[in-house]
Amino acid sequence: MMNAFNANALQFHPLSTSIPSVDVIGCDRHASCRHQVQEFIRKGFYQWYRADVQDFLPLLVTARAQNIHSVLGLRTQTTDMLVTRYLDSGLTETLAAQGIQDVEGKVAEIGNLYSESHAYTLPLLLTTVKALLEAGFTYALFTATTRVQALFMRYGLQASAICPASPEKLDGKAAEWGSYYQAGPTVMLLDLARVSAVVKNNPRLTDIDRAQQPAASTIASQLRWLRHA
User: How many degrees, rounded to 5, is the angle at CA 135 between CA 76 and CA 1?
Assistant: First the structure.
């Protein structure tokens, strides 16, 4: 199972620290880059948590500067979302409690995140949010460790906590995740429009967002294809 929103070496530097120029690229299950990207995730999770990652989301999005530095995965079909096994009730009921109706086609799952530094995580996240909005999504559901939650708060990217991501919900497979559950993962809901509003009011984030517009549009096209596949 792979629905953990993690990041390695999230070192919080001053806001003046420059964000590197990166290429953000989507890699579906048929792409030639797929094996390389999966290995990046697998090795990263093993190094950081001693986790044995075997499952990967349909679209893997990478931030590259010559080499891969950050990756996350996306899923568009709500019936297949692995994050839902942590919920005490069904996805529809859980989101209805948050005031969200007509779930299908509005909510995407984010997972498989592994990053070498928050400097690469930030452009990856902003491009992903932009792509999801362009593809017609309004929310993203994911699990976040306390370190990733801190990254969100640092940049004002507010997400709502839904419930703890408990290893007891894994049907005896928690051992495959090594020490991951010691990192305090929580199921989170991200309002994409709210993130976009924060970005527009932050010149630094706006610069990153504008630079990644072509990449976001390409990934949005891939998401539309996944939605109807």
Answer: 20
Question: Which tokens is 208 given?
Answer: 């990153």
Contact of 139 with 88, CB cutoff 8 Å? no
Of 92, 53, 83, give the one whose Cα is nearest residue 186: 83
Residue 164 is which amino acid?
P
Residue 80 neighbours by CB distance under 10 Å: 11
Q: Give pLDDT, residue 129.
A: 97
What is the distance between the alpha carbons of residues 167 and 184, in angstroms, rounded to a whole number? 11
The token pair at 11 is: 């070192």
CB atoms inside a 10 Å sphere around CB 167: 17
pLDDT along the chain (229 residues), means of 10: 40 49 94 97 95 95 94 93 92 91 89 90 95 97 92 87 93 89 94 95 92 96 90
Could you give the 3-state DSSP secondary structure of residue 58? coil
Residue 18: what pLDDT? 61
Burial of 168 (0-12, 13-18, 19+ CB in 10 A): exposed
* Paired residues of 27 in beta bridges: 60
CA-based torsion, 170, 36, 105, 211: positive or negative: positive
At residue 36, the pLDDT reads: 97
Gyration radius from the chain CA atoms: 16
Amino acid at 7: A
* Domain 4-228 CATH (choose: 3.20.20.60, 3.10.20.310, 3.30.870.10, 3.40.630.30): 3.40.630.30
How many CA within 13 A on the CB side of residue 15? 7
